[in-house]
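Much of our argument rests on the idea that a fold can be written as discrete symbols. Part of our work consisted of pairing the sequence of a single chain with a tokenised description of its backbone. The amino acid sequence and the backbone structure tokens for this protein are reproduced below.
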Amino acid sequence: MVTPLVATFTVHFAATLLHVERPPMRSRLVALVVGVVAVLVGLPTGARWLVAAGATVASVAVLSGYRLLWRIRSTSVGARFGFVVRAYERAHGAFVHGALLGAVMGASVLPGDWYVAVRSAHLHVTVLGRAGLTLLATVVFLGPTVFRVRIADGAEASSARALRWGATAVTFAALPLLGSGVGGTSGAVLRVAAGLALVVLTSAVIVVVRPVVRLARGAERSLSTLLLRHACWWFAAGPPPTR
């Protein structure tokens, strides 16, 4: 459910923010849903060919969405929120990485420690990369829109830097998580490195959500204001464990 929603709304928001006509999405969404359903059916039934086919179809659909976002951004010269769309692109890339790691797990060729390491990296790039980066980038403009106020002074520049650092931290943390399957002291050192990357990501999250929360305090009190405000703080407080 989350994956088709992300695919739909990222293109919708990208077209809206960059003031271009929204491109058709039906064929991409159909392919994405079919791929996801194939994986969900293939996993419990042990049909590896169905898992592989579904993952391939879903990945191709997401890659197509990545190319679409890139084309939207590249044709919008001097767009104010181009950095948001760039974060959406990196979130799409995280999905592809997660799909590849999921395919490795589904092949049942990994020993215990390495399976845990790959699973940790898979969860990391899908939860914090695919979903996390998308939500974090959206908060930049959606918060002020919901609160019916102007975006805070300087928030765009600071958010652009923070999103760039946060996306890089997500990518970097996946590498030591993968390598932690080696075990022993080396594995522990790699897990610490992944943890440090998550600290950078958490700092980036705080930089992005802090001006949004400040705006929420001065906005008219409503359920949507409270939900968005507290969601911002939960996002910063609750990254998943690295192991």
